[in-house]
Amino acid sequence: MSPESYHPCSTKVLPWPGDSERPASSSLVTQPLAQLACNCGLRDRLILPSDAAYWEQLDPDVRRLPLDGKVFYPKMWQFSPPTRMGFVYRDPIVKAPNVHLYTYANVVEIVPNEGLTAIESLRAKTIDGKEHRVRARHYVLACGSIHNARLLLASNSRATQGVGNGNDLVGRFFMEHFEIIGAQVAFEKAQPFKLYTVPSAGRARARAELALMGDVQRQHRILNGTASFRPGPITGREQSRFASFSDDAEANVKQRQAMRNTPGAGSPPEPQVIYQMFTRQEQAPNPESRIVLSSEKDEMGMPRANLRWRFTKIDKHSIRVFYELLGQEMGRAGLGRVQLMDWLLDGDDDAWPNILSGGWHHMGTARMHEDPKQGVVDANCKVHGLANLFVAGAAVYPTGGAVNPTLTLVALALRLSDHLKNRVMF
Ligand SMILES: Cc1cc2nc3c(=O)[nH]c(=O)nc-3n(C[C@H](O)[C@H](O)[C@H](O)COP(=O)(O)OP(=O)(O)OC[C@H]3O[C@@H](n4cnc5c(N)ncnc54)[C@H](O)[C@@H]3O)c2cc1C
C-alpha cells in the first residue's frame, strides 16, 4: 500500500464534469492523518509533511525540477510497508469480547423486510453447502467495490431490482485509475532526480510525481492525474500490467516479493537524460462503466459479477492535455522536450492501446450522493431508503481522484464506525 500524503489538490472536489455529479467529499474525510497512517502500517515511521520543500531541505540532492510552480507541483507519496490487515489486526479482533468472527461464511443474500425499509437478515453459506442466517441491528457491507455491488444486485428475491437499487444506480460509475505510459521526456542534461525516486528520512520513504495545480486542471477542464518518471526511453515492448497478473494469487505475491528483493530495488537509479512518463489518472464517473450480474453462477448459487469497464472521451483527452502542458513547461524552462506516444495523437479519444492498465483500484458502484436519484449511499454511507444498511470501502467514492484509494477508505471506515457507535449508544 502506498498511501499518498494529503495535498490540498488531492482531495479538492473539482467542478466538472457536471457540477451536480461531484458532491463534496473532501470535508467528509476528517480523521487525523496520523491515526490513519497508523492503521495503514506507518505506525512507527515518521509521518512527514507532504510539501516537497520538507524533503529538499533534508538533502541537497533532493531538488524539484525548475518548472513553474503555478502550473506543476511535485506531489509527494509516502510508502507504508505492505500491511496485511488480516495479520496485523487478527489478534485484536479475535480477542475482542464484543466481536464474533465467522470465517468461510459467504454472504449470498441481503434480505430486506417486506416494506423494503430495513434489512432483516443476511443469508450466508459455506462452500460445502451449510447455510446460516445472521441478524443484527446494523449491517455494513465491506466486500470491495465489485462484490458490494454484486451482493446488492443479487439480493433480488424481495427487492426485484436488487437491494438499494430502486434508482438503478447500484453497480454504476465503476472507476479505476488509468495507469499507462503516455510520453517520454528527453532532458538537455541529466537532472538531480532523487526527489522523483525514493528519498527517505529516518524510516519514512517517499517520492514525488508531477501533478497539475487544481487551477490549471480547472482552466483546461481536465481530470486529476499525475506522471512519474521511469529511467530510459520507450522501447515498444511496454506491456499492460494486466498482462503479467496471474489468476493464481500466490504467484502474484511471489512475483511482487521477488521484485522487492531484486538487488538495488528501491535505491535511486543514476540520473538519466531520457525518461518514460507514467500516468496515473482518475477516470470521469460514467454510468455505463458498471458491474452487472452474469448468467453464470458460483458454487453457492450466486450470480457472478461481470465488469463493463467503459471510458469517456475526457479520460484520454485529459492525459493528452497533461503532457502537452508538460511539453510547454519543459520548453519554456529550457529543460528539454516531451514526446507524446502515438496512441495519444491518433485523433480518436475513444481508442485505447493494449498497454493500458488499472491500479487495481476499484471504486464507485455505490456512490455517495445526498440525492437518492444520484447516489446509492448518503453522507453517512447509509444506503438510501434502508434504515440499517451501510457501505464501507471505495464503492462509495463519487470520484476517483489521483491518489491510491485505501487511505481514504480507511478514513471513511473509521468515520462510519464513529457514526455507528453514536447510533448504537444513543
Ligand atoms: C495488486 C494490488 C495492489 C494494490 N496496491 C494498492 C496500493 O498500493 N495502495 C492502495 O491504496 N491500494 C492498493 N490496492 C487496492 C486495495 O487493495 C483496496 O483499495 C483495498 O483492499 C480495499 O479494501 P476493502 O476492505 O474495501 O476491500 P477488500 O480488501 O477487497 O476486502 C473485501 C473482503 O470481502 C470479502 N468478500 C467479498 N464478497 C464476500 C461475500 N459475499 N461474503 C463474505 N465476504 C466477502 C473478500 O473475500 C475480501 O476479503 C491494491 C490492490 C491490488 C489487488
Protein model, in words:
This protein is 23% helix and 21% strand. The chain has one domain (8-425): FAD/NAD(P)-binding domain. The protein is globular, with a radius of gyration of 23 Å. The protein has helices at 8-11, 33-42, 52-56, 85-88, 90-95, 144-154, 214-220, 249-261, 313-332, 406-425, and strands spanning 72-79, 106-112, 119-125, 131-134, 139-141, 177-187, 200-201, 204-212, 225-231, 274-282, 290-297, 303-308, 336-340, 357-358, 389-391. Strands 1, 6, 7, 8, 9, 10, 13 and 14 form an eight-stranded antiparallel beta sheet that branches. It is built from ten helices and 15 strands. Helix 2 packs across helix 10. The structure holds flavin-adenine dinucleotide. Residues 1-3, 106-107, 142-144, 147, 151, 360-361, 393-394, 404-406, 409 line the site of flavin-adenine dinucleotide.
- CATH-derived topology: FAD/NAD(P)-binding domain
Estimate percent helicity: 10-25%
Under CATH at level 1, the class stands as Alpha Beta
Mean pLDDT reading: 87
What is the level-2 CATH architecture name?
Answer: 3-Layer(bba) Sandwich
Distance between the termini: 36 Å
Note poorly predicted spans: 1-27
Which range does the strand content fall in? 15-25%
Total domains: 1
Compressed to H and E, one letter per element, the order equals HHHEHHEEEEHEEEHEHEEEHEEEH
Largest sheet: 8 strands, antiparallel
Ions, cofactors and other ligands present here are: flavin-adenine dinucleotide
Tell me the CATH superfamily. FAD/NAD(P)-binding domain
| 3D shape | globular
Query: Number of DSSP strands?
Result: 15
Category by helix and strand content: alpha+beta
- What is the number of helical segments per DSSP (H or I, 4+ residues)? 10
Rounded radius of gyration (Å):
23 Å
